[in-house]
């Protein structure tokens, strides 16, 4: 074998291993869902998730706001270089092939960064339901749009699936983390919805303690429930093997959502999640059948 070719292949293997390690370290259900994909698609999804992980860490980890903003600007530049065919970062180099093979859109990567800029702020406030839907689109549905292209879902169907599933999953995250987010000076519940229930935004402790907050959570819960229903209808129109990872992710989050609704919205400090056994059972049940 030519030494140059051998070195390139060796470099590719090392890069793939590094990308996979980023995904594995996250501890996300995503890693196990993507394990069911064929090699090429799996590596594409790992690269997409590694990008998401990197920009999400910038937004969430402690640091000065100016530093975070600058780091996200750098990622905007990296995406521009990627689409100019000149990737310079480990992750964008891994994304170059998937962008060409699956037609991944630059706008979706930029949308994810837009969402991370919201999370990076010292205080997060969402004005309206429409603004919340846009935020969910940026941080979740945009990831879905990238994913369905890799899965091979027809475009119109894929866009609908990405929208509904992204909204369902992100609303589940928001409802699960209301108490924790408030401690970080983040309120993703729309201000106009809070105000319509007589809840003022002056004091976050008072917001969390307000008796009408449960009603606000119930409104968002109904929206999430509708999105889950839409996902199940849309999934039936897809080739099941192609979207198996999406099914697994939906079922994981659906179980969390069901536990949240069973717990109710008056005990927001009580954590809700899946046990290791429940995660394994979900992977086996929806991975094989």
Summed up, what is this model?
The protein is mainly α and 289 residues long.
Describe what you observe in this structure.
The protein is an all-alpha fold. It has two domains: 122 residues, Farnesyl Diphosphate Synthase, CATH 1.10.600; 167 residues, Orthogonal Bundle (Farnesyl Diphosphate Synthase). It contains 14 helices and two strands; from the N terminus they run ααααααβαααβααααα. The protein has a two-stranded parallel sheet with strand order 1-2. The longest helix has 23 residues. The radius of gyration is 20 Å and the shape is globular.
List its salient traits.
289 residues, mainly alpha, Farnesyl Diphosphate Synthase, 2 domains, two-stranded parallel ribbon, 14 helices, 75% helix, disordered N terminus
- Give the class from helix and strand content and strand pairing: mainly alpha
Gyration radius (Cα, Å) is: 20 Å
- Termini separation comes to 42 Å
| Mean pLDDT, all residues | 91
Strand neighbour order, sheet with most strands: 1-2
Task: Find the CATH topology of the largest domain.
Answer: Farnesyl Diphosphate Synthase
CATH architecture of the largest domain: Orthogonal Bundle
Largest sheet: 2 strands, parallel
Compressed to H and E, one letter per element, the order equals: HHHHHHEHHHEHHHHH
The CATH homologous superfamily name of the largest domain equals: Farnesyl Diphosphate Synthase
Tell me, what is the CATH class of the largest domain? Answer: Mainly Alpha
Query: Beta-sheet strand percentage?
Result: under 5%
Described by the principal axes of the CA atoms, the overall outline is globular
């Amino acid at each position: 074998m030519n030494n140059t070719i051998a070195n390139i292949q060796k470099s590719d293997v090392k890069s793939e291993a590094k990308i996979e390690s980023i995904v594995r370290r996250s501890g996300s259900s995503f890693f196990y869902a993507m394990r069911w994909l064929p090699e090429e698609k799996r590596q594409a999804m790992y690269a997409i998730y590694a990008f998401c992980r990197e920009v999400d860490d910038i937004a969430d980890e402690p640091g000065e706001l100016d530093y975070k903003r600058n780091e996200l600007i750098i990622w905007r530049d990296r995406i521009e270089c990627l689409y100019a065919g000149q990737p310079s970062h480990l992750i964008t180099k891994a994304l170059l092939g998937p962008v060409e093979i699956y037609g991944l859109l630059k706008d979706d990567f930029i949308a994810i960064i837009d969402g991370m800029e919201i999370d990076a702020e010292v205080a997060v406030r969402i004005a309206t339901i429409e603004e919340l839907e846009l935020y969910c689109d940026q941080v979740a549905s945009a990831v879905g749009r990238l994913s369905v292209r890799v899965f091979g879902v027809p475009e119109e169907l894929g866009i609908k699936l990405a929208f509904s599933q992204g909204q369902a999953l992100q609303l589940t995250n928001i409802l699960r983390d209301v108490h924790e987010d408030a401690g970080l000076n983040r309120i993703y519940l729309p201000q106009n919805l809070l105000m319509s229930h007589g809840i003022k935004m002056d004091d976050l402790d008072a917001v969390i303690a307000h008796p009408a907050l449960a009603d606000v959570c119930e409104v968002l819960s109904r929206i999430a429930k509708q999105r889950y229903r839409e996902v199940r209808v849309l999934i039936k129109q897809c080739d099941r093997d192609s979207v198996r990872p999406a099914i697994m992710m939906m079922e994981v989050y659906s179980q969390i959502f069901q536990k949240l609704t069973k717990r109710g919205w008056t005990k927001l400090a009580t954590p809700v999640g899946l046990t290791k056994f429940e995660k394994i059972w979900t992977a086996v049940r929806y991975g094989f059948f």
